[in-house]
Amino acid sequence: MRIYKNSYKDRFGQTRPSSKWYGEFRDHTEQLRRLPLLTDKAASDEAGRKIDRLVALKLSGVSPDADLSRWLLSGPQKVVDMLAKWGVVDQARLAGTKTMVQHLADFEQDLATGGNTSKHATVVFARVKRILEGCGFRSLGDIQRDAIKAFLNSLRKEGSFGAKTYGYYVRELKAFGKWLVRSGRTRENPFSHLEALGAKAVSQDVGKQRRALTVHEISRLLARTQQEAFRFGMVGSERALVYRLAAETGLRASELASLTRASFRLTGKNPSVIVAASATKNAKMAELPLRPVTVRLLDEHLKMKLPAAKAFCIPPNTQTARMLRADLAAAGIADKDPQGRVVDFHALRHTFLTLLAMSGVHPKVAQDLARHSDINLTLSRYSHTVLEQRSEAVAKLPGFEEGADEGAQASTSGGKEP
Fold first, then answer.
1. How confident is the model at residue 334 (pLDDT cuts 50, 70, 90)?
2. Which segments of the chain belong to CATH 1.10.150.130?
3. Phi, psi of 355, rounded to the nearest 5 degrees
4. 26 vs 394: CA distance, rounded Å
5. Which residue of 27, 320, 350, 367 has the fewest CB atoms within a 10 Å radius of its CB?
6. Which of 144, 169, 172, 171 is nearest to 155 (CA)?
7. DSSP secondary structure string for all residues of 243-272
8. Helices of type H across 259-374
9. DSSP string, 148-211
10. What is the pLDDT of residues 128-161, one digit of tens each?
11. Alpha carbons 43 and 46: distance in angstroms, whole number
């Protein structure tokens, strides 16, 4: 390999040598290649000798020895990547010298530039990273299917997630494996034999149970939050307005966070809030009606904001449950009932559907407002509410124990015979 320095002209027209040394060589296909090496002459000479050895080994069909393998792992990344691009180094063999941390970093970058939403890329990367780090895999050669299954089962057993989320982790790992194959790092997907849990396990998984707030609890929450101080980046009045909007529209926390001043139509016969398709769960634009009281509150809150400004300073999704829990505590409302059902931010959407059911709204209208693709999702909330109302009605029936009838008659007649 010939080692040399390039020259360039600076802004004053003076010719100056480049800071880095360059290398020129012919690869295994006799193609003339040039690439930047290092700023140190001795280190560049050493890199040139190693590249010459790699070309010779490629021509003879012999794999790199331990010394070259270590250099491929710790050497100049751009130089190694160029050698892989030109075929001097086998991509799959090079992948074997990379640590799992390096693979994950490359995977994260590919997700970010591959047309995915930032939220999707973050979730996928976090799930893959959690499993690979949890299993202690340091390289591709460490991957063992049984170790992954054991780790996933341990997380499920300790309550970190349910059967459905187990399947999501398997899906993301398989996507990572496909990326490894697509990028030439391995010939086979090391996660292809992983399987999600069956439909029976998913249906039997209880998961998190939420409860709806009562009308009295909502009123108390809104009144108290209105008076509360600055918390989680929002003043009390703004938090109260967000809770009200969630309970009256069924909007999710992420959908509320996406709203801008321009998302609201506060004038005209039918005031509404519009959620862009990019922010909804079903990827469809949604327009939901607003109540007059809420319109007045929104008009006051938004009047000084520009059209493109965020409507609310909602914290990240990981913080919304904590924010609501703090305001529930201030209002004296328990965030968990004796049955273990919790009140988190998504419970405000449950509250919305429950109130629709209690108000006698037709299930098809409720399905449209809830933006459910399957009416069974809507009916499950309706059935729950109707069952509670039935239970209350049956509880009011007189008892059938001996003497119960006489006691009931006495209570209704003031204890006197007719």
1. very high
2. 100-204
3. -65, -35
4. 89
5. 27
6. 169
7. HHHHHHH---HHHHHH-BGGGEE-SSSS-E
8. 292-302, 317-330, 347-358, 363-370
9. HHHHHHHHHHTTS--HHHHHHHHHHHHHHHHHHHHTTS-SS-TTTT--PPPHHHHHH-----B-
10. 999 999 999 988 878 999 999 999 999 888 767 8
11. 5
CA–CA dist 333, 310 (Å, integer):
30
Which tens digit of pLDDT belongs to each residue from 364-381?
A: 888 888 888 888 777 766
Task: State the pLDDT confidence band at 211, using cuts at 50, 70 and 90.
Answer: confident
Name the fold adopted by 100-204.
Answer: DNA polymerase; domain 1 (1.10.150)
The CA distance from 135 to 143, in Å, is 8
User: Measuring CA to CA, how many Å separate 409 from each of 395, 403, 414?
Assistant: 18, 10, 8
Q: Is residue 162 scored above 90 in pLDDT?
A: no
The answer to whether 344 and 213 are in contact (CB under 8 A) is no
pLDDT tens, position by position, 9-32: 888 888 888 899 999 999 999 999
CATH 1.10.443.10 residue spans of the chain? 215-391
With residues binned 3-state (H G I as helix, E B as strand, rest as coil), the percentages for the chain, rounded to 5, are 55, 10, 35
* Amino acid in the structure at residue 114: G
CA atoms 402, 406, 410, 415: torsion sign: negative
Please identify which residue in the block is written with the tokens 């001043």. 261
H or E element that contains 400: none
Tokens of 239: 């938090």
Q: What is the pLDDT of residues 243-278, one digit of tens each?
A: 999 999 999 999 999 999 999 999 999 999 999 998
DSSP 8-state code for residue 277:
G
* DSSP 8-state class, residue 416: -
3 state DSSP class of 402: coil
- Per DSSP, the residues of 115-133 read T--HHHHHHHHHHHHHHHH
The CA–CA distances, whole Å, from 273 to 214, 250, 253, 266, 291 equal 24, 12, 14, 8, 11
Amino acid at 75: G
- Give me the pLDDT at residue 362, please: 87
Token digits for 168? 């999501």
Q: CA gyration radius for the chain?
A: 32
Looking up tokens 């119960």 gives: 404
> Phi-psi bin for 61: left (phi > 0), alpha (psi -120 to 50), beta?
left
